[in-house]
Amino acid sequence: MSNFVINGLLQSRNPLLTFRRFRGKINIQRPRAPHYERARVLEVIKPAYKKPEFNAPCIEAHKTRESNKLDNPYETIIAREARNWFEHSKLVAFLHVNSIRQEDMFKAQVALHRHNVSVKVYGKSIMRKAVGGTPFETILPLFEAKTVIVFAPEPQKIKQVLSVLKKTPQLILLAGIVEGRLLSKNEFVAYATMPDLTTTRAQFAAVLDSVGGKIVSDLQCHQSQLVNLLDAYAKNEQASSGGGEGSPQAAGENVES
Description:
Ribosomal_uL10-like_sf; 11 helices; Ribosomal_uL10_bac_type; Ribosomal_uL10; ribosomal protein; single chain; ribonucleoprotein
């Protein structure tokens, strides 16, 4: 009985595997259509992708970056400080910084500080908050690279700034703002050669005074010339009449009489 249970009921049988080769050659380019039921399932689970636009990746990346950008209170405070510098400075210069040692940069900052000129460094995000929506918004392309800003309370400090830049060739002048007007590099350098406002006003007043005096002299020219001619004619008449009475013939006639 035990042998029957062991040999008959508890005996395990391994499956018989047979490999059969496909009859025909598989066509990879034109495969056989699937079965109807399988075709229905494949049609249902077929993914549908929306055709992306030409610049969709760039737009999505920009939206993602803007959505992930958080409002930093510290940047807001620094941006308010930078805007205050722009509003209360008569002279602003933008300098591109090449490879420079920190020691040389410190010497340039000390030289500018002696002339009451401040040197500031701000990032592009801070400058976007500082000058966004203001007349100074056109300076944002200057901050694609490392840029240093120089602030001076008076426009007369432009000569001192240029003299310090000549001694520091690693700092390259890009542009400047003088009394609220954006100037290019050539205009900024040309402004340094101009005299100050007091001297210019004095020269302008002298020109106006000289023009007025010339106009008066031109108007009185004919009258003065006529007076001079009449005076000379009168003197000649007096000299001729006085010379006739004092001649030798007149003196001899007086003696005979």
